[in-house]
Amino acid sequence: MGAFLGHLIMGLDLSMLSFFGIVGLSGVVVNDSLILINAVNRLRTQGVPLQEAVLRGGTLRFRAVILTTLTTFAGLTPLILERSLQARFLIPMAVSLGFGVLFATFITLILIPCGYMIFEDVRRGPGGLA
User: Can you list the domains of the chain with their CATH numbers?
Assistant: First the structure.
């Protein structure tokens, strides 16, 4: 979603390289989500209650997720803003990756923990027992 919004903001058409950027973006998003879920799972195995484990896991991995986002977007910004003929070929890929990672950060930090808690509620069943 963020990649498509980035193309709209920048006034670019989607191209094959845009989709290459989206593929690269999926790796960054999966990595951010995995480190968050891994932190929560480690806390759960230590006996921390579900809600506290999700809150502490988000707090523990917040810096890693934000730094990944900021460094990726900051590194791609010069390419996104470049206007030379040689760079125009790569700009759609950089826009997909840069704007996508900005959008995905909020998904990772908000929706992934919410989804984790919902999944645990569903797994426990109607009685609430695992």
Answer: 2-6+32-122 (1.20.1640.10)
| Alpha-carbon distances, residue 21 vs 38, 46, 81, 82 (angstroms) | 26, 38, 16, 17
Query: pLDDT tens digits, the chain, 130 residues: what are they?
Result: 999 999 999 999 999 999 999 999 999 899 989 999 999 999 999 999 999 999 999 999 999 899 989 999 999 999 999 988 888 889 999 999 999 999 999 989 999 999 999 999 898 877 666 5
Query: Who contacts 33 (Cβ-Cβ below 8 Å, separation ≥6)?
Result: 108, 112
Report the alpha-carbon distance of residue 54 to residue 49 in Å, rounded. Answer: 9
Residue with tokens 């989804």: 115
Specify the pTM: 0.83
Nearest Cα neighbor of 55 from 114, 123, 122 is 114
The neighbour count for residue 120, using CB atoms within 10 Å, is 16
C-alpha span between 26 and 39 (Å, rounded): 20
The amino acid sitting at 56 is R
